[in-house]
Design brief:
37% strand, single chain, 34% helix, four-stranded antiparallel β-sheet, 238 residues, 5 helices, alpha+beta, Alpha-Beta Plaits, three-stranded antiparallel β-sheet
Length: 238
């Protein structure tokens, strides 16, 4: 019994090595061949399915309340036109509301308040891009006198970016194979892959301010967008 107790005490004093540490040691394989670092880019093209446009109303009055009241009335007509056109509530977002005094400056005289200008801007996501030009014309008819955009984008880019990632991996592998052949070696394995990020949103394209009298049929063409993913890959050559 004394021997059994002594054996148990000795075993309890031994350090306990976590199982995960042993697994990590087994998985760690040092590079025995030539290390090769390459960068690769994968690219795909898609037609944008969303146009983001800013539309607004600017009004001017001798009083602040007058400028705001007129602005509110015209903006209500603009929002109503968007709803009649089938634009969902979630795709209409107020982006700015401003009220500013206007002064007249004359030499050797204090500034004179002459009027107030009020502005209200909404950001609209048009999911029917080819129909968005006609809707913009109706907004102008309802009182919108500022329109800026569009910014074309893809609502759900994940699948396209995944395809670009696959293309980037293939491009990186092909580049590694090329270097290996040139050195009389072969690609033994991939050591690591890191992604620098997917790119798919282009800069906005400005649209000129339009007056209420405009009645031309505005055309908006979606074109194509390029989606890119860049990778940094490390290979072992032997």
């Amino acid at each position: 019994m004394r021997r059994l107790i002594a054996a148990l005490l000795v075993s309890a004093a031994l350090p306990i090595v976590p199982a995960t540490a042993q697994v990590m040691t087994d998985l760690a394989q040092p590079i025995t061949g030539t290390r090769l670092d390459v960068t690769a880019t994968g690219e795909v093209s898609r037609a944008p399915d969303v146009a983001i446009i800013s539309a607004g109303v600017v009004t001017r009055s001798a009083t602040a309340s007058g400028a705001l009241q007129e602005n509110s009335a015209r903006m209500e007509r603009v929002i109503a036109a968007l709803r009649r056109a089938g634009v969902a509530e979630r795709d209409i977002q107020t982006s700015s509301i401003n009220l500013n005094p206007e002064y007249r400056y004359q030499e050797n005289q204090p500034p004179q308040l002459v009027a107030y200008s009020a502005s209200n801007q909404v950001t609209i996501r048009f999911r029917d891009i080819r129909n968005s030009g006609r809707i913009l014309d109706s907004l102008v008819a309802e009182g919108a006198n500022q329109i800026n955009g569009p910014t074309m984008t893809i609502d759900e880019p994940r699948a396209a970016l995944d395809e670009a990632r696959s293309n980037a991996v293939a491009a990186g592998r092909a580049k590694a194979e090329l270097y290996a052949r040139a050195l009389g070696k072969r690609v033994a394995r991939v050591i690591s892959i890191s992604e620098s990020g997917g790119q798919y949103a282009p800069p906005p394209m400005p649209m000129a301010e339009r007056s209420m009298a405009v009645s031309a049929d505005t055309k908006i063409e979606p074109g194509e967008q390029k989606l890119q993913v860049s990778l940094a890959m490390v290979f072992e050559l032997q």
